Amino acid sequence: MEMESDVLIVGAGPAGLATAIELGIRGIRALVVERNERGGMAPRAKTTNVRTRTHLRRWGIADQLAAKAPFGIHYPNNMVFVTRLSGHELARFANAFNASPERDPRYPEHGQWIPQYTLEKVMLEKARNLHGVDIRFGHTFLTATQDADHVTADIRDTDGGITTVRCRYLVGADGARSGVRDLIGARMEGRHGLSHHYNIIFRAPGMAQAHAHGPAAIYWQIGKDGFSAVGPMDAGDLWFFMPGGAKPGQSLPKEEAATLIRERTGINLPFEVLSADSWTASELLADRYADRRILLAGDACHLHPPAGGYGMNMGIGDGVDLGWKIAATLQGWGSDALVASYETERRPIHKAVIREAMANYAIYVTPPPPEIEDETPDGDVARAKTGAGIQASKAREFSTLGAVLGLRYASPLISMEPERGPELAHDSQVYQPSARPGCLAPHVWLDEQLSLYDQFSSGFTLLVIGDADDGAVTAAQREAQALSVPLSAIRPQHPDLAALYGAPLVLIRPDQHVAWRGTEWSGALARAIGRRWTGDA
């Protein structure tokens, strides 16, 4: 069989689905192939951060995800450190990852603790409802070739039939063992096998009432048996347990898993172990993300320990960036430089987040004092000292807004400007809104329900503030028309906009990042799409 699509996406995980949604909402045909039946009961990721949920808001599905919160969105997203679930509390962090649903001026959507498979179901439904998006499970990517204008790929279905797909771009969102990455000869650089862990999913009626630490998302156990994490995962009394010491690539027998849960938590209940597979923590980054029309996204190009909850969310960010840039190019108003900027802009972000995750991870490999569980004065001292150390060192892992919202793109498409005063030092915990080009556009609420982001278009948006020159707005619109670039000019009213944005005219990209700001229009739109403006079409 033969078929055509604008874009072939290999992998229907969060990165692949995000790419498909961004393409589909812009009318671009996307074929998504996935060899596995996604879902299962053992999600790696459970944190959907504020940036990802803001993308979901833009796609119209943030409320759908909130409605599926297994314990309700008001369930406290606490991180509690204990010697073991039946033992002593060492430290706690409330409202981790900004998951409290109260309205915040810095962003329109709170974070959410929810299994990855639930997020995937919501994204999958959205993608399938978009005209031109075709998702096929049980289809395996085999190989591909490319020329100057097209990629030709072979896909095998479960019956062994081969389909040849002709497309304009191929996106490899096919995970850590990416076949697309191998195809283009990209290499993962860094450290593999930092540690090995089991991911055990079990049913435990009465578990929440069997300890004295109150509700939390994760109970981090630091005792004489080592480090592990346990917590409620989903409705139906489903819990997860993640101890170290796993054998790479091997599952743990269910009886052994149940015994391990009892030993490590100190709670004896009739646990029903549903799965007990293993996973490996690594620190890896691809040496390149693309070969002409074939590009990588998500775990196919970056891997790191889950300390900080960044991985899945970064993959969705990759899909957003790739999606709008490929769509713009296929629609004729983007240039080849636009797609090329994907690696230029995203790779430094990945590097920064990997550094942050590794800094968080390093704390876990420090063994606790041997007397930490002793009911003695020495045990009291050990617990107090360990708890103080956790409180001082682990806040950066659970307060991540600076890393989630505050990292800045840099590329030839961003109209970088002379810095107005000293550059603020980056703080991974503290988000300082800035409208400097490359930054995420600062957020405000325009009324009780309406976010400034709700006013941004799916194309470019010209934010007009205060007494901006009407002639400059007209010049921007004329440039957009000549280049066939979708541009909407908006004039929202809010007393903080002038101070937040620092200029009367601000050009916002489709991904809500600032491309340019100023007082006089000077061809910034052409630069933002990788072209050069001469005043002509």
Describe what is shown at a glance.
With 537 residues, the chain is an alpha/beta fold. It has 14 helices and 24 strands. 29% of the residues lie in helices and 25% in strands.
Helix/strand layout:
Elements lengths: L1 E3 L2 E4 L3 H11 L5 E5 L12 E2 L1 H10 L2 H6 L11 E4 L6 E5 L18 E2 L2 H13 L4 E5 L1 E8 L4 E7 L4 E6 L1 E4 L6 H6 L3 E16 L14 E6 L2 E9 L3 E6 L10 H12 L6 E15 L3 E2 L2 E3 L5 E2 L7 H20 L5 H29 L12 H17 L1 H4 L2 H5 L54 E5 L5 H14 L3 E4 L6 H5 L3 E4 L5 E5 L5 H5 L9
Written overview of the protein:
This protein is 29% helix and 25% strand. With 537 residues, it is α/β, with parallel strands linked by helices. The chain has an eight-stranded mixed sheet. Strands 8-3-2-12-19-18 form a six-stranded mixed sheet. The chain has a four-stranded mixed sheet with strand order 1-11-10-9. Helix 1 runs parallel beside helix 4, helix 1 packs parallel to helix 7 and helix 7 runs antiparallel to helix 8. The longest helix is centred in the middle third of the chain and has 29 residues. The radius of gyration is 24 Å and the shape is globular. The chain starts with a strand and ends in a 9-residue tail after the last helix. The model has no long low-confidence stretch (mean pLDDT 94).
What helical percentage do the residues reach?
25-40%
Would you count the extended β strands for me? Answer: 24
Note the overall shape.
globular
Structural class: alpha/beta
Number of helices: 14
Unreliable segments (pLDDT under 50, ≥5 consecutive)? none
Placed side by side, the strands forming the largest sheet appear as: 6-5-14-15-16-13-17-20
Rg, rounded, reads 24 Å
